[in-house]
Amino acid sequence: MDRSGSDRGFCDLGSNLLVARTLLHRGEEPPLTAEGGSGAVFFSGCTLRCVFCQNYQISHRRRGRPLTPEALGREMLGLQSSGCENINLVTPTAQLPAVLDALAVAREGGLRVPLVYNTGGYESVEVLRILDGVVDVYLPDFKYGTEEAARRYSAVPEHPGYVEQCLKAIREMHAQVGRLRMRRGAAIRGLIVRHLVLPGNAARTDRVLKCLAEEISPDISLSLMAQYQPSAGAGDFPELNRRIFREEYDAAVEVAEHFGFHRGWFQDVDRVDGGFLPDFDREEPFEGN
What we know:
Radius of gyration: 18 Å
Number of domains: 1
Low-confidence stretches: 1-13, 282-289
CATH class: Alpha Beta
Oligomer: single chain
């Protein structure tokens, strides 16, 4: 999409950077936060319109402040100075050209921590290939196992569909960075795939995990999240207007085990923020070089 003129596309963003906030974030998966926290940069806008989005004001209403690439580059360096383990770009795709300019500024200024690409998973392979050699850790969602759910809950267009597009994107990410590797408990390179369990299996978690195991690998790091809350417009969908039951999450865990996933994290259903439990690596030490 050429945003140099008046055409803003689905995300309704122009050519300038719009950033909601930058902060030291400690609510991500353990190897992303480690000791120093994750240096999160929350970009306004998103390629999806999830009705239950917890960042609704940022992603749907595009709340944020305009920044030049130079200013954002300096903020990234400030996060590094505060001791962050990585720079965590949250939904950056719609503003990617300016984001890359900001990264160039930051790296010229001495940015050396790993770069995390945190995305809803609905990505173009062509765009991802631009990022080959730039991104160290990919952190995509795989939200839905059916096209119907993707259209109903995230306004995904019929073409290209969500499931196959998401699989193509994750396959490309996996080819670029491989299995998660860590140093002293902190992620330095690799892929982590997130999936949020929805009430009543509305996301078809069984199909999501089957696709990941068969089309990518059960050897990937899986973050199976229990932190769903009926945010934003979820109240308009009766099936989503509650938190998940423990039995629903336990069933999702059983599915993950059935398909052979053995690296990653489960969450505590009883905690509102999810609360990551110890990793469930069951075959070999999680640490790597």
